[in-house]
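Q: Start with the shorter request: fold the first protein.
A: Done. Sequence, then structure:
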Amino acid sequence: MTKLSRMTSPQVTQGSGFDKPAKQRIVEAADRLFRRNGIRINSATIAHEAHSNPETVTKYFGHGDRLIGRFVRSLIEESERYWRDVEARHPDDPHAQLRWWMFYEQERMTDAVRPEVLLARTAAELLRSPQDAAFVEIAQYWQKERRRVVGLCERAGLRKPAELGDKLLLLVHGARNERGAYGAYAPSRLLHQAGDDLMTAHGAAPAPLFDWADLED
C-alpha cells in the first residue's frame, strides 16, 4: 500500500486521503511530520505517511528542500494572519497593538505548534546552513517583524523606539523558545507585564493589562 503510484486502480475510501492526488497527500503529510517532528525527515518517511513512494516525492519536490520551503512559507502566512487580527482588534492604536501582541503571545505559550514557535525551531534546525533558502526566508520575515514592532513603537510616540522594539522582541523570542522546559510556573507568564513595564519606561501611559475576558471579545 506504500506504492500507490504503481497501482492502476487504487481503492478509494471516503475520508482516507486516497481520494486526493499524490502531490497533495505528500504536501499534507510533510506538513504533519514537520510540525510534529521537525524538518529533518527523510523522503521515505514522508512517502510512507502520504501512502506514496520516495520516487514520487522526489519527482514533485526533489530531495525535500521544496517541501521545507512550502512549510516555512505556510508558517509565515499563519503568523501574518495573526498580525492582521492584532491590527483589526485595535485599528489605529499602535500602543494597544503592542500590548495585545505581548498578551496574546503569553496566552499562547502552551501551544507548542503555533507558527511562531515552529519558525524558531526550524531556524535552529537550519542554523548550520545560513545560506539555505528556507533559513533566509525566516530571517527576512523576522526582519519584517522587527520593522513592524519598531514602527509601532514609533507611531505610539515612545522614546528610543528602535531600542524598545528590540527589547520587546528579545522578550517575545525568549518566551517562544521556552518550549515547556519550565513547566507551569514559567518566566513567560510575566511576558505581558514585563513588556508593559518596558513600554511605560519608554514613555507609555500606564494602562490595565489585558486579561482572559479580552480574548473572548
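Q: Next, the second protein, separately.
A: Sequence, then structure:
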Amino acid sequence: MQHTEQLSPWWRHAVILTMAVGFTILIWLAVRSFTDAPPIPKQVVTAAGEPVFTQADVLAGQQVFLKHALMENGTIWGHGAYLGPDFSAEYLHTLTGDARAWFATHRYQRPWSALSVVEQDTVKAEVVQMLHQNRYDAKSGTLTFTDAERLSYQEQIGKWAAYLSQPAANAGLPAKYITDTTELRQLTAFFAWTAWASTAHRPEKNYSYTNNFPYDPAAGNNVSSDAILWSALSLVSLLGGIAVVLFAFGKFDFLGWKSRSERVLPPVSVGHATASQRATLKYFVIVALLFLLQALVGAATAHYRVEPGGFYGFDLSRWLPSHILRTWHLQLAIFWIATAYVAGGLFLAASLGTEPKGQVKGINVLLGALVIVVLGSLGGEFLGINQMLGQAWFWLGHQGWEYLDLGRAWQVLLAGGLVLWLFLLFRALAAVRKDPEKGEVSSLFLYAAVGIPLFYLPAMFFDSTTHFTVVDTWRFWIIHLWVEGFFELFVTVM
C-alpha cells in the first residue's frame, strides 16, 4: 500500500503561537515609543530667556539630515552608516570639551590645559552634573541651556559646516555639500537635541532618555544597570527559547521531525517545467544581475574607508559620493533577496498547485512592475541626494532613512507588487487547499506569503518630521521583522 505523508498541523499552530507572543511584546514596545520618546522642546532658551533654537528648527534639521542622506554617512544614537561619525556622540563629546573649557575659564580664569589635576577633576564633575541635569519644563515646553551649552551650539555650526565641505574628511560626501547657513544651523540644532536627550536624566530616573547611549565616560554616560539587566535577560530568553524548540523537535513528533518515508513532499518533477515556471526564469537572471551590481557597488563603498578623497586617482565623490553608493548597496541587497523569494514562491506554487489561465501574463506583469520599482527608486535616490527633485524628494527621491531610502511613491508601488504576487500565489494554490495531502502545506505557504506584503506596511507609518524614536521603532519592524523575520518564515516553508 502506498504511504501518504501529511504535514503536521502543529507547524501552523507553532507559527500562530509564536506570532501571538511576539506581537504582544512588539505592540507594547511600539506604544512605549510614542509615550516615552524624548520630548522635543517648543523652544530652547538661555537662563536670561534669549532664544537658542526652536522645535521647528529641530524638525527642519531632521529634514536636512534626511534629504541629504546623512544617515548613509554617519549615525544618530548608533543607527545608520559607519563611514562617518555618530553625529549625536560627536556633538556630545565636543560639547563636553567646550563645557570644560568654559568652566575652567570662569571658575579658575585659566584654560583647561593649565589646570591642576584636582582642578580638572572639579571641572569634570561640574560638567557631568550640568549635562545630567534636566532643565526641561514640560508645562511650558521650554528647555533652558546653560551659557556653556549655548556657546558650544553656536561654535559647532562651523564645525559641521567644515565637516560637510571636505570629501577627504567626511568619507566621500560631495565637496561643499551643505552650504546654506539656515540649513547648517537647523542641522546643528537637531544634533544638539539628540545630544541633550543622550545625557539629560529622565524625570525620576538616574539615566538619560536613551539609557545613557552613546557611551561617553567624559560626559558621565556610563552603561546603566537597567541596560545590563535587560541585556542579560534577553540572552537568557534567547537561549531558553532555543532549548524549548530543540526539545520539542527531539522529544516529540508534533512537527513531523521524524520522517517515515524517503520522499519529500511536495515533489518537483525534474525536467518538466510548466509555462509559469519557465516564465520565472527571467526573475533569476535579474537576481544574478542585481547581486553582481550590489557586489560592485559594495566594493566601491568599502574603498571610501581606505581612500575617502579619491578612487585610484579619480575623484569618485564628484559623481558617485559614498552615501549614494551605500544607499544603492543596501537597496540592491533588499531587491535581489526579495526578487529571489518572489520567484521561488511562484516557481514552487506551480509544483504544489495548478496552472491557472493567465498566470504567465500575471508573472510577466509583476516582473515589469519590479523593474520599474528598482530602476525608478535607484534613479530617484540619485536625483534626491543631488537635490534635483525639490519638494518631491520624500516621495520620489531619497527618504533618508537607512534601509528605507527609496521614496514613498516607490514604496507604495513595491507594496502593490507584493499584493499582486500574493494574488498569483493564491490562484495557483486555491485548488489544492482542500487536498488531504497538500492542503496543510499549501495553507501554511499562503499564510507565510501574506506576512510579506502585510508587514511591509510599517514602512509607511511615518514621514520626514515624525519623531526619530518613533521612526526607528518602525524601521526595526521592517529591518528585523520583515526582512529577517517573515522572509525567513517564507523561505522555511518553501
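Q: Describe the second briefly.
A: Strands lie at 43-46, 51-54, 75-76, 79-80, 136-137, 142-145, 398-401, 404-406. The mean pLDDT is 92.
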